[in-house]
Amino acid sequence: MKTQQQSKSVTRIALAAMAAIVTAAIVAPAQAAPLTTEIPPEVIEGTPMPIKLANLAKIRKTAPSIDVPEGTVLLSKDKPVTGSDDFPIIGDLFYITDGDKVGGEGYFVELMDGPQWIQIDLEASASIAAVWVWHFHSQARAYHDVIVQVSDDEAFESGVTTLYNNDYDNSSELGKGGDKPYVENRFGLLVDAKNTKGRYVRLYSAGNTSNDMNHYIEVEVFGKK
Q1: Euclidean distance between CA atoms 15 and 11, whole angstroms
Q2: Residues in Cβ contact with 156 at an 8 Å cutoff, skipping those fewer than 6 apart
Q3: Rounded distance, CA 119 to CA 43, Å?
Q4: Which residues are bridge partners to 121 per DSSP?
Q5: CA angle 130, 222, 85 (to 5 degrees)
Q6: Which of 93, 128, 191, 213 has the fewest CB atoms within 10 Å, i.e. the most exposed one?
Q7: Which residues touch 77 (CB under 8 Å, ≥6 apart)?
């Protein structure tokens, strides 16, 4: 027969075990998996111009990858796109979320020179895990002052979170960035959004090393509603 002391010891052990189980359940990280998407084929056109930028990121030879929460989906497909240039020189803004990432003529939007932005409306606030960007990958070039921001405010006047910024000298007056400029290729730029909450995703640029214009082929926003 168990003594009273033994019974108390068993009870303490049982309670400790239950507490450990509850604690493990609370601190256990959410299930995550590598984010993947369809990578467009390589299409090279024209003669590339010299890229004269300091501190360039190493040119990627394979698709980038980050882990995102289980259940993460593409949120931006066919979502409305607006921009600072209401009348693109080439193409239409809806190209940016139409799902077509092919390089070359007829697949990109060209906006006028100088600082410009495009904005995707996810039509509801979401937990954004990643933003994948293709500016123009049929020629090696680097875009200036690339900035990616998220907000629930359509005008981006409050509650703005900057996810990526390679504007090293603050020439766009949105804050000095610490990200490296990069050379465009078919693998695009994958930005870790760290599950930032927001409805609108805005992307800035200010020309490129080949010309003064701004271009977009596709922008994919991944997350969970």
Answers
A1: 6
A2: 149, 200, 202
A3: 26
A4: 200
A5: 85
A6: 213
A7: 97, 99, 220
Report pLDDT digits (tens) over 75-113.
Answer: 999 999 999 998 999 999 999 999 999 988 889 999 999
CA distances from 165 to 56, 76, 168, 179 (A): 13, 21, 8, 6
Task: Map residue 223 onto helix, strand or coil.
Answer: strand
Whole-number Å distance between alpha carbons of 143 and 82? 20
- DSSP-derived letter for residue 172 is T
CATH architecture of 68-224: Sandwich (2.60)
What b/e string do you get for 152-186 counting C-beta neighbours within 10 Å, with b at 16 or more? beeebeeebebbbbbbbeeebebeebebebbbbbb
DSSP 44-76: --SPPPP---TTPPPPPSS----EEETT-EE--
Closest CA to 198 of 100, 119, 113, 132: 119
51 is written with which tokens?
């890229």
pTM comes to 0.86
CA neighbor of 217 nearest in space, from 182, 189, 193: 189
Distance CA(145)–CA(142), nearest Å, equals 10
pLDDT tens across 195-220, in order? 999 999 999 999 999 999 999 999 99
